[in-house]
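Hey, I'm writing a tutorial for new members on how sequence and structure tokens pair up, and I'd like a real worked example in the thread rather than a made-up one. If someone can provide the structure for the chain below, I'll link this post from the tutorial.
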Amino acid sequence: MNNKTLFISVTAFIGIIFIAAVGMYKSQQPSTIASEILPALERINAPVKGGKQAKVTIVEFFDPACGTCSQFYPLVNNLVKKYQGKVKVIMRYAPLHQGSEDVVKMLEAAHMQGQFWPAAKLLFANQQRWVEHHVSQPSKALAGIKTLPLDHDQLDKDWQSSKVAQIIEQDVQDGQTLKVRATPQFFVNGKPLVVFGYEELVNLVEEAVSEAY
């Protein structure tokens, strides 16, 4: 075997090994959530938007102080509107920024008065007023939420209650179970968004809608 033939053979062999390795890597990436941890995806009474009978469920773990969550907020709403009645979104708390744990408690307290979505929209739209250098300022966030038509005394009582603390703790624990390490983290009918991006999320939702309908 001359040197040229040997070189071609070695190169081809390396190419085959590389392709096989890539295929093995992709096959090892989680395309679905294991059945034993599926219960960690949804929580009873979590904020939800979309068709009650929708067969496609987007679960989003979010932090109201997260800039990317703010950018995705209207985009996810657009998906729910586009597939009206077919897609719903469930919001789960993942307070990863410093100070955000109190802010999500305030959001949950607003949710208890039927004002989660207006409160979330307000916080996202005014992030620069209550988030400084990626650190949440709960008192400023609370002042913003109190511009909504809410019972302020009840809001203060609820967000500092053990009931709300337990709800947030469940979301945090479920996020840890699902290995949520950054926000926003999306799951569509149990499938995690492995490669992050809006186009990738759209494709995952479209695939789920096609399969379900």
